[in-house]
Amino acid sequence: MKRLLILLSLLLSFTLQAQVIPLDEKSYVDSLQNITKTAANTSKATAFFLLSNYYRNSDSLLSKKYLTNGKAFIKNDVFLTAKYDYYEGQYNLDRNKEKAARSYQKAIKALSELKTRQSDFYQSLAWYSYGVTQKDKEGYPFLVKTVVEKCIPLIKKYGNSRNLGFAYTQLAIILTYNAQFEKAGNYNNKALEILEKNYPGSAELFYTYLNSASNFCYQAKGNEAKKFLDKAEKLITPYPESSSNSFYYYGKTLYYITKQENSEALSMIEKGLYYTKKFNQNLQAQMFYFNKYDILKKLKRYEEAKNVLEDILTEKSLVLDLNNRKTIYKQLSALNEEMGNAKEALMWEQRYSKLNDSLSSENVRLEINKIEAKFNTAEKERKIATLNAEKNQKDLEMNKKNSYLWGLSLILLLALSLLVFLFILFRKNKKISEQRINDIKQKEELSLTKAILDGEERERERIARDLHDGLGGMLAGVKINFSTWSSSHLHPEKDKDFYTILGQLDQSVGELRHIARNLMPESLLNFGLETALNDLCEFYSRKDLNIDFQSINIKKDLPLNIQLNIYRIVQELLANALKHAEASSILLQCSQSEERFMITIEDNGKGFDQKIEQTTKSMGLRNLKNRVNYLKGKMEVGSDSQGTTINIELNTDGE
Questions:
Q1: Cβ(642)–Cβ(604) below 8 Å
Q2: What is the distance between the alpha carbons of residues 257 and 265, in angstroms, rounded to a whole number?
Q3: Distance CA 506, CA 524 (A)
Q4: What are the pLDDT digits (tens) for 468-507?
Q5: How far is it, in rounded angstroms, from Cα 269 to Cα 283?
Q6: C-alpha to C-alpha distance for 605 and 261, rounded to whole angstroms
Q7: What pLDDT is stored for residue 476 in this prediction?
Q8: Gyration radius from the chain CA atoms
Q9: CB distance 55 to 63 below 8 Å
Q10: Histidine kinase domain location, by residue (predicted)?
């Protein structure tokens, strides 16, 4: 029992999910893709969000791309904005739980004011996912309370829906982990009553069968578990390309472990690993490996078992959760002790003890904080009661005096009203004056920025023209004269040094023209902004760097000075990513909606410390901010160890 519960605790964070992907995944994805091309804006936004959720664990860049595409169709729709916040939380759920929690709270706040069936459904999903983000901080009681008090009531009032059925079985998973098997079975049965009757071919029913089977496996009731696995098999068999097959084979693995049929369990693990590798289900793959370790250890194939555990530590997906890491440290210590490796066993035991002490201290600190909060609340309530009693006594005394003070109070009130009126009038005039001064100052700053940028572009254009038409033409002429002279006076084989120098001269002419084009891009002047940006991305692309450029509704009638400033902004962003990020993939999206021009750039590089925005003296960053301010825009920067995202919104309605 204990060994199986350890496996469940490792898997739980992966199986807790708010939305289910249909078993026929290909038709599901194709349908969403078709909606993004043909439907109205509201449906397009929802389809993009669902595609983002589908790819969030298997392809983060594609998931982020779909999330951004969906955001472009939100406009001023409150419901779509709340849905975006929810799916942004989904995107960050396994990357940054604090960031995800903030997104879920934003969605909950907006959705709670709409009072529709759809808003209640998404509010329920947001509450559930928020509970998952707080699981490590608040523990499972908080998650159970969230599901029972927030999630289920919101969808239960609309009858027996598939969402209610799935909420029941998700609650059952949590109860199973806490060894409350009977309660878990009751909630699984509630889910089955709804789903078998009304949604017989649904993915929700498939997962309920698997959860029911797991619940019986952890009670060592293999025959009962097999009944539900057979039902799950009938649902998944028509879809051999579905990623849900990995969960089915995981259920079969638990079944064979329960029956102590180790060779069959190893066979199921290999089948499950095929799907985890195909769909990039890294955490699920590590779970299979952990089961493989457990079986190899039982078969006394200690060296193989040890290698499997060390590979799990190296891959890192599973051990991001500190409790999982602690479990694996303990297993490695016991395994090395069994193998007679006393030194390694001691090393892993020390790591286990150190991490266990750290987690215990953190749990004690959290409990102390909770107790202290309860004490402070009780103390405040006692003080409030005392103050209320004193206040009531004073009120009785004051009532006796009030009749004598009414006349004086009326006079003072009139005088005070006059003073307040005069003060408000003074403040209003002062504020108007300050606003005028600020407007003048801002106009002067914009004028200065415009003069600097215009002067910079004129000087670039002059230098580019002089280099291209003047020095470039002269060098080209010299090269032609040398080529003509050498053809009649020199021999290609005997005078190789001369021809090498002639080649270097040709390269120099090309480099000079490249510099001239960089100073004033001809494609921008001749073909417009979209073509110039596409050429710029192709220029920066390398074998080890892929730049994906996407343009949406870029108008060709933008004033040239605005096109130049946008081009320089993108040029600076790409140069910074190339120089500092060490990225292998960059996503650049430029879109225009009426008078707004949006730029989004995302890379998968090493990120940077965002405090550098306040401390750096980089001229590139300063020029970038000047150009954004010049176009009355705003810039948001987000960066962590998984990459950097920069969003810029510009105003193109003139100066």
A1: yes
A2: 6
A3: 26
A4: 455 655 665 566 667 777 777 777 777 777 777 877 777 7
A5: 14
A6: 46
A7: 56
A8: 34
A9: yes
A10: 462-654
Report in angstroms the alpha-carbon separations of 498 from 334, 491, 507: 74, 10, 14
Residue type, 50: L
DSSP state of 545: B
406-411, long-range: CB within 8 Å, 24+ apart, which pairs? none
What is the average per-residue pLDDT within 555-573?
A: 87
pTM over 0.85: no
Residue 247's pLDDT band (boundaries 50, 70, 90)? very high
Please give the Cα distance from 296 to 339 (Å, whole number): 13
Q: Fill in the amino acid letter for 442.
A: Q
- Could you tell me where the DSSP H helices lie in 112-243? 117-133, 135-138, 140-146, 152-156, 162-177, 181-198, 203-217, 222-236
Sorted by sequence, the CB contacts under 8 Å of residue 273 that are 6+ apart come out as: 285, 288, 289
Q: Which residues of 155-164 are buried (b: 16+ CB within 10 A; e: fewer)?
A: beeeebbbbb
Residues with Cβ within 8 Å of residue 4, at least 6 apart in sequence: 217, 218, 254, 257, 258
Distances (CA, A) of 106 to 54, 71, 147, 167, 420: 22, 15, 18, 22, 39
By the 10 Å C-beta count (0-12 exposed, 13-18 middle, 19+ buried), 451 is classed as exposed
Residues 6+ away with beta carbon under 8 Å from 56: 63, 90, 91, 93, 94
Q: How many CA atoms lie within 13 A of 75 on its CB side?
A: 9
pLDDT above 70: residue 380:
no
Directed axis angle between helix 181-198 and helix 162-177, to 10°?
160
How many helices, marked H, and strands, marked E, lie in the chain? 27, 5
Please say whether the beta carbons of 602 and 586 come within 8 A. Answer: yes
**Are 55 and 66 contacting, i.e. CB atoms less than 8 angstroms apart?**
yes
586 backbone dihedrals φ, ψ, rounded to 5°: -130, 130
- Residue 136, amino acid: D
pLDDT in tens, 588-610: 999 998 888 999 999 988 887 76
List the single range of 257-266, 385-394, 646-655 with lowest mean pLDDT: 385-394
- Backbone φ and ψ for 640, nearest 5 degrees, come out as -150, -170
Alpha-carbon gap, residue 169 to 66, rounded angstroms: 29
